[in-house]
Design the sequence.
């Protein structure tokens, strides 16, 4: 057999008609849940092109990933924030963790949880010069997103101050290269009854600027995460400043009565759901039912 093919093999199928061109079909096949994208930043109902994601969805994912990486490595301009807060009526103290730079901070989480020697001396001096120990110390820490504290720390601090008229609040401590546990040492050195640390949370692919608040009652070095309460996802697209401040105020009152924070302290504040959200969901209920329906057989 000159062509090398086995006898009895089926003949090759020859294409006698032209293949469909892209103009004959939509480039991106729509998803029946597309309308639900109005209610969530989650990546749902992206559609598809063949077996792949549409180019626009892939590019948006790549951009979100780059923004998250940039947020982790962005510098915290503590000096500029100190000026802004002082103009808003806050006293400030700058401190630094034992992590000397960003690469060390990312490689050595333990160093980000403790103050360097100069910062300890600065806080001890402030405690000695204060007339009385404060009820609450507020710490602003860069954490894993300096972008979050740059955007949200000042309005968040103002909202907290408005919610706590009966509490004496110490100077705002601006902490560079800081992890959550650093607030415990700050509160202990200043003799505060409680510390609330505002920190840039680990960026997600839809939230590179999410702010978190960690509350510790009777702060001291060695407190565990089980002895803290967390309020997270504070940003315009998530939990509002006013809701977060009200939640913190409720937790502080509860901690004062209980004498503890963490797993023994429960958040009993109820954040109201936006009225418009319920109306929009009701209007789309028929769409959700339709997407779940199965054809009659």
Sequence:
């Amino acid at each position: 057999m000159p062509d090398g093919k086995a006898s009895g093999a089926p003949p090759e199928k020859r294409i006698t008609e032209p293949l469909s061109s892209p103009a004959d079909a939509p480039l991106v096949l729509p998803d029946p849940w597309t309308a639900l994208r109005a209610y969530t930043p989650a990546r749902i109902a992206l559609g598809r092109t063949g077996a792949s994601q549409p180019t626009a969805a892939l590019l948006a994912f790549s951009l979100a990933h780059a923004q998250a990486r940039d947020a982790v490595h962005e510098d915290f301009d503590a000096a500029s924030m100190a000026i802004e807060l002082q103009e808003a009526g806050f006293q400030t103290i700058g401190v630094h963790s034992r992590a000397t730079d960003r690469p060390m901070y990312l490689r050595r989480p333990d160093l980000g949880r403790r103050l360097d020697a100069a910062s300890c001396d600065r806080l001890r001096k402030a405690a000695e010069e204060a007339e009385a120990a404060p009820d609450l110390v507020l710490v602003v820490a860069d954490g894993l997103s300096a972008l979050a504290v740059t955007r949200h720390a000042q309005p968040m601090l103002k909202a907290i101050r408005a919610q706590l008229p009966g509490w004496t609040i110490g100077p705002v401590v601006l902490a560079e290269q800081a992890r959550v546990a650093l607030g415990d040492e700050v509160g202990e050195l200043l003799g505060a009854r409680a510390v609330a640390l505002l920190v840039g949370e680990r960026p997600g692919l839809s939230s590179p600027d999410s702010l978190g608040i960690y509350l510790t009652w009777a702060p001291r070095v060695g407190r565990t995460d089980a002895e803290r309460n967390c309020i997270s996802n504070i940003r315009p697209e998530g939990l509002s400043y006013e809701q977060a401040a009200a939640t913190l105020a409720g937790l502080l009152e509860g901690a004062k009565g209980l004498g503890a924070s963490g797993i023994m302290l429960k958040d009993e504040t109820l954040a109201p759901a936006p009225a418009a959200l319920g109306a929009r969901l009701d209007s789309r209920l028929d769409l959700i039912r339709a997407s779940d329906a199965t054809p009659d057989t």
Notes: The first strand starts at residue 92 and ends at 96.
